[in-house]
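User: Let's play a game. I give you a shape written as tokens, and you guess the letters that built it. Ready? Here's round one.
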């Protein structure tokens, strides 16, 4: 069975609110590379890199859904590795669709919504803005911080890095996937005692320490696998076509 690419793209644009969610202009959310028009299998990955493109070719995918698209370096000639990525997609007739902040903040298949549900976060509310878009969630969670680390280890399959400079018993937790270490101040201002994100800079240790928060870095890549998997599953079920997640972890 195959489905028209235009039908899937129209659905994704509406479902993810592609034109409504403000983002970095380099994200170029939506369809980035078009194909001849038919999709019989979806592949999904965190990043549109050469390795995941090659994996999509090997998996016989027709549409590659990613969180990080092709154009984060901005304008550049179609030469070198940029040409390699583009040429492999075009030669293999694979369409590429990217959703950055629209996926982070989505209430059903978003990275943060899924992590909040997996962790049992109660009374979730929007938290943390980027480009004017609330992208994360905070809520109530009553357990020892080591248990929270253990839950994240199980859910994401990585070893989280805990900055244990807040209370041992957590009660108000914020979640923003990816590289949101700069939002520790937002966590403090929101009255949170624990903040979960992917990664942060060296100095964020002192932010956590001096403001008395626990910070858990669970990996930029790992915290952003959950949304694109859920999105691919959702679209696959809706259109009755198979999907596959392409692992290419960075360890970061």
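Assistant: Ready! My guess for every position:
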């Amino acid at each position: 069975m195959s489905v028209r690419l235009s039908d899937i793209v129209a659905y994704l644009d509406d479902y993810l609110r592609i034109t409504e969610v403000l983002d970095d202009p380099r994200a170029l959310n939506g369809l980035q590379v078009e194909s001849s028009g038919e999709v019989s299998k979806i592949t999904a990955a965190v990043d549109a890199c050469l390795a995941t493109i090659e994996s999509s070719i090997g998996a016989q995918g027709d549409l590659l859904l990613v969180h990080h698209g092709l154009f984060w370096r901005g304008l550049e000639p179609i030469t070198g590795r940029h040409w390699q990525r583009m040429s492999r997609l075009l030669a293999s007739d694979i369409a590429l669709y990217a959703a950055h902040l629209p996926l982070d903040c989505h209430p059903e298949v978003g990275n943060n919504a899924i992590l909040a549900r997996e962790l049992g976060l109660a009374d979730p509310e929007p938290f943390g803005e980027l480009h004017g878009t609330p992208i994360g969630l905070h809520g109530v969670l009553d357990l020892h911080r080591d248990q929270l680390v253990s839950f994240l280890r199980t859910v994401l399959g990585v070893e989280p890095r805990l900055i244990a400079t807040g209370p041992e018993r957590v009660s108000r937790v914020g979640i923003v996937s990816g590289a949101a270490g700069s939002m520790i101040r937002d966590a403090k201002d929101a009255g949170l005692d624990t903040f979960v994100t992917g990664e942060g800079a060296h100095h964020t240790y002192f932010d956590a320490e001096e403001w008395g928060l626990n910070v858990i870095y669970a990996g930029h890549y790992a915290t952003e696998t959950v949304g694109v998997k859920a999105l691919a599953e959702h679209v696959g079920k809706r259109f009755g076509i198979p999907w596959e997640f392409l692992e290419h972890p960075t360890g970061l």
